[in-house]
Amino acid sequence: MSFGPQFERALALLREAIAAAQATPEPPLTASQMLAELDELAGLRGRPAFYPYLGSGIGRGARAMLADGRWVLDFALGIGVHLFGHGNLDLIETAVRAAASDLVMQGNLLFNREYVRLMRTLLAHAPRGMDHCWLSLSGADANENALKLARQKRDGRPGVIAFRGCFHGRTSAMAEITDRPDYRVGQPQTFPVRYLPFFNRADPHSTAQTLAALRDLLAREGDQLAAFIVELVQGEAGFVTAPRDFFVPLFEECRRAGIVIWVDEVQTFARTGELFATDLLELADYADVITIGKVFQGSAMLFRKSLAPDPALISGTYSGATVPMAVAVRIIEKLTTEGILGPAGRVKRFESLTREHLERLSRQRPGLISHIDGVGAMIAFRLGDGRLTATREFIQRCFAAGLVLYYGGHDPACIRLFLPAAVLSEDELAEAFAIIERCL
Ligand SMILES: Cc1ncc(COP(=O)(O)O)c(C=O)c1O
Question: What DSSP string describes 121-183?
C-alpha cells in the first residue's frame, strides 16, 4: 500500500482521538439509557430490534460489550458475518491502514489497488472453472447479477428452479425466488419460480423423488427456465445439509437441459470448513456461477467465461468500500494460512465439539433437543417441537443470560449457532452450553 499525505494526517487524528478518549473515558450507558437508545432506533427505522443488542464498539473474540457495559457471548455474529468475532486486532489494523486511503468508496469507474487485490485473491481460491469475479455490496446484489447472467445465457428465458425452504435475499427478484411467501406480501410474482424438495435425510427415497420432480419439470417447462439456484447447505431454513450424491444427478440433468447452475454460497462461504462448500462437496465441475458474501465483508459473483455478460448488463456506482475490501483480503489470507479451514482446522474442531455438547444435551433431555444438523461453523438444533414462538422466547432467555443466538426455519424453527470458530475457545463454547442448559 502506498501512503499519501493524508496518511500522516489520519494518523495524527487517530492519536488525538485516543488521547481524548483516555483523558475523558466515556462511561457505559445505564441499562435504561441503552433501552431508550434502542427505542429511538426502533422509531427511526420503524421496527424494533429483535433483541436489546446495542454494541459499545468494544469486543474481544467471541465476546462483545453492549452499550450498557454488559458482556455477551456472540453466537449470532450479525447472521454469520464475523467469523473472527469482535475486536480482532489484525483486522482492525488492516482497516485503520485502509481508512487512510484517498477514497472511502470504490466502484465501477474508480478502482484502487484493493479492488484488484480482492478479485485476484478470490479467484486464486475459487473452485476450478471460475474465470471472473464481479464485486458488489450485498449477497442479494450478487444474486441479482447472477440472475441476469443466467437469463442472458438462456436467451431471455425468465424462470428459475429453486429448493423448498431456500433463501436468496430480499431484493424484488430475490424475494420472488426465496421460498417465503410472507417475505413478499403485496408483491407481484413477475417470473416463474419452480420449487423442488430439498434433501430429507429421514426419507431414503428423497434423492430419487427430487430427481423425478426435476425431470418432470424440465419436460413440462424446461423451455421457460434459465437457472437452477442452489444453497449447498440451506442457511435460513436452518442449516440443512445434503450429501454430494443428492446434488450430482440434479446437476447432470440440468447440464443436459442447458440450465445454468448457480450456487449461492453467500452464507456458506468460509463456514463449512472449506472456503467454498462447492469444494467441500467436490461439485466445482458443475457450478457455472457462484455468489458469495457475509464472512468476507462484501459480496461477489464468480463465473465462467461462457457466462460473460454483455458490457452494459451489470454495473453500478459502488462495488464496495476501501476498508472492507482490504479487510476481506486479510480475512482470506488468515483463513487460508492460520489453521482455520481444512479437515484438521479450527472450524472442523469446533463443529465436532459443538455436536458433542448437543448430543450430550439431547441424551440428557430427550425430546427437548433434536434434529441436530449443519456443518462447520454453522450448526443447528430443534428445541422441543420447534414451535416458532417457543424458539424465539428461548433465544430471548439466552440473550438475557448472556448468550446471543438466532433462529432459522419457520414452523418448525430451529436454533442456529453461528460459531466464531476462528477465535472461539473451548471454555467459551462450554460457557455457551452452560447458558443454553440453564435456559432450557
Ligand atoms: C444463502 C443466502 N443468499 C443470499 C443472502 C442475502 O444476502 P444479503 O443479506 O447480504 O443481501 C443471504 C442472507 O442471509 C443468504 O443466506
Answer: HHHHHSPTT--EEEEESSHHHHHHHHHHHHHHHTTT--EEEEETT----SSHHHHHHSS-GGG
